[in-house]
Design a protein that fits this description.
The chain has 15 helices and 15 strands. It is of the alpha/beta class. The strands form 4 sheets. It has a 7-stranded mixed β-sheet, with helices on both faces. Helix 6 crosses helix 12, helix 7 runs parallel beside helix 8 and helix 7 packs across helix 11. The structure holds pyridoxal-5'-phosphate.
């Protein structure tokens, strides 16, 4: 049987959800609630304290308890179907558990967490990260790791560095992660592209480019690609590493969603690399807490000094507070059990989205079918523009992403949309895909001067 205090909490939350208590309004007094529930004032205070800890309400001394505005906002957000946001699912962000780790880390490290610290990252955190990376088949040592302020920082700094091969051009998959394209543009780097589809890349073309195009490094997102959702096979990864070695090209492997891979036999490119040409970047942003701004990069010994100089110029060191608390979180085993949970959540959502796409999307659209991850992409009929779909759906509070900004100008496709499954509510998936399907059908019929289709409710 649930305790009185948890009943009070649940009832108050229900009233908030139903709009019976609105932002800024005052909660019933402690005395009133204790009479209504036939319990002591202490029990009510305990329930209100818990709600305050969850930031649902706040207290004003000598006045009472009030509803936090944010709660109201969350209620309004529920109306939205969000296939756009690419942060982790807010319902499984373990920030409350992490709060304990923050406190423990402060107790342990004291003022050390609040002053400048090692630009390579806390050594004891790097030791924990080495153990974590082993689960991803990345075997290395703390001396080769740098803790970075998110993988975006590692990418940005690598663009700026001269590489030991003395080459000049950066090769990227087309399409690719928009943040990397932004970094290349900002730094006016020399960039070349190679087309990536759900069938992969043409390895002969890659070899041709490695041989002839003065490639400094090839940036690759080998698992659950952003935006396509594509994964390379082990055979392809091995071959790419072999080519890199043959033509003295570096590989920058961005394995941001690698933790979500249900295939225990899938290896990172790093594991096929005997010569130290693969730079492995692992962000924790998608499976943990992006706000910590912590990721790590495994570097060849030859590049460590230059990278650390660039890191020093960028921000001295990544937040020591985040690092200390993450170390505690990893050590405690909480991270591994959290990972089990997130793997399941995203795999289920990805499955539901694909099931809905299969059942509802018009026959002249194609969608990718990754086994997990955050992203899948939908190729619209040739003359239906992603921009129009995004706009039309936006008016109905359904958010999807136009992938055209994820291409270099010469590769641009305007009929690709990206869905991110991480923040969409499971219960809204079918409706969201149905609305998307209807929208595509309407735009398609307009272009073909056909009568718009009649829609059946789902
Ligand atoms: C493929 C990829 N790499 C890197 C990043 C940057 O992530 P962070 O800097 O939070 O580690 C993102 C963010 O969405 C991404 O999708």
């Amino acid at each position: 049987m649930s305790s009185k205090y948890s009943r009070i909490m649940a009832d108050m939350k229900r009233r908030l959800e139903e709009g019976l208590l609105t932002a800024g309004s005052k909660l019933p007094s402690v005395r009133q609630v204790s009479e209504d529930y036939g319990c002591s004032k202490n029990t009510v205070m305990k329930a209100y304290d818990e709600l305050e800890k969850e930031h649902v309400i706040y207290s004003v001394p000598k006045s009472g308890y009030y509803v936090v505005n944010e709660f109201q906002k969350a209620r309004e957000e529920l109306e939205v179907i969000d296939f756009l946001s690419a942060g982790p699912d807010k319902n499984i962000m373990p920030y409350v558990e992490f709060q304990h780790c923050l406190n423990q880390a402060i107790d342990q490290y004291k003022e050390e967490l609040f002053t400048y610290s090692d630009q390579q990252g806390l050594y004891s955190l790097r030791v924990e990260l080495v153990k974590y990376l082993q689960n991803l088949q990345v075997f290395t040592e703390p001396e080769r790791l740098v803790v970075v302020s998110g993988s975006q920082q590692a990418l940005h700094l690598l663009v700026s560095l001269a590489f030991p091969n003395g080459k000049n051009n950066i090769l990227i998959e087309q399409p690719t992660y928009f943040g990397f394209i932004e970094s290349l543009n900002l730094q006016q780097a020399n960039v070349l592209g190679i087309e990536l589809t759900m069938e992969g890349i043409e390895l002969e073309r890659l070899e041709y480019m490695f041989r002839n195009n003065d490639i400094k490094f090839f940036y690759i997102i080998p698992r659950f690609h952003n935006p396509l959702g594509h994964c390379y096979t082990n055979r392809e990864k091995k071959k790419i590493v072999e080519l890199a070695e043959k033509y003295d090209v570096y590989i920058v492997e961005d394995d941001i969603l690698g933790d979500l891979d249900p295939d225990a036999k899938a290896d990172p490119l790093f594991s096929y690399d005997p010569s130290g040409r693969v730079i492995y970047i692992k962000s924790l942003s998608k499976v943990f807490l992006p706000g910590l701004r912590i990721g790590t990069v495994v570097l060849p010994a030859l590049m460590m000094n230059d990278f650390l100089r660039a890191k020093f110029c960028s921000d001295f060191n990544s937040s020591a507070l985040s690092q200390g608390a993450l170390e505690t979180y990893l050590k405690s085993g909480m991270f591994n059990s959290h990972l089990k949970k997130v793997k399941e959540v995203y795999r289920t959502k990805m499955h539901l989205v694909q099931e809905a796409c299969e059942a509802l999307l018009p026959a002249n659209t194609q969608f990718s079918r990754p086994a997990s991850g955050f992203y899948l992409s939908i190729s619209l009929p040739e003359h239906v523009k992603a921009k129009q779909v995004v706009q039309m759906l936006h008016e109905q509070h359904i958010y999807v992403d136009d992938a055209s900004r994820m291409f270099l100008p010469q590769y641009k496709k305007e009929n690709l949309i990206r869905l991110s499954i991480s923040q969409v509510n499971e219960s809204q998936i079918k409706l969201g895909i149905k609305m998307l399907a209807d929208c595509i059908a309407v735009l398609d019929s307009r272009k073909n001067h056909r009568k718009p289709p009649t829609f059946l409710p789902i």
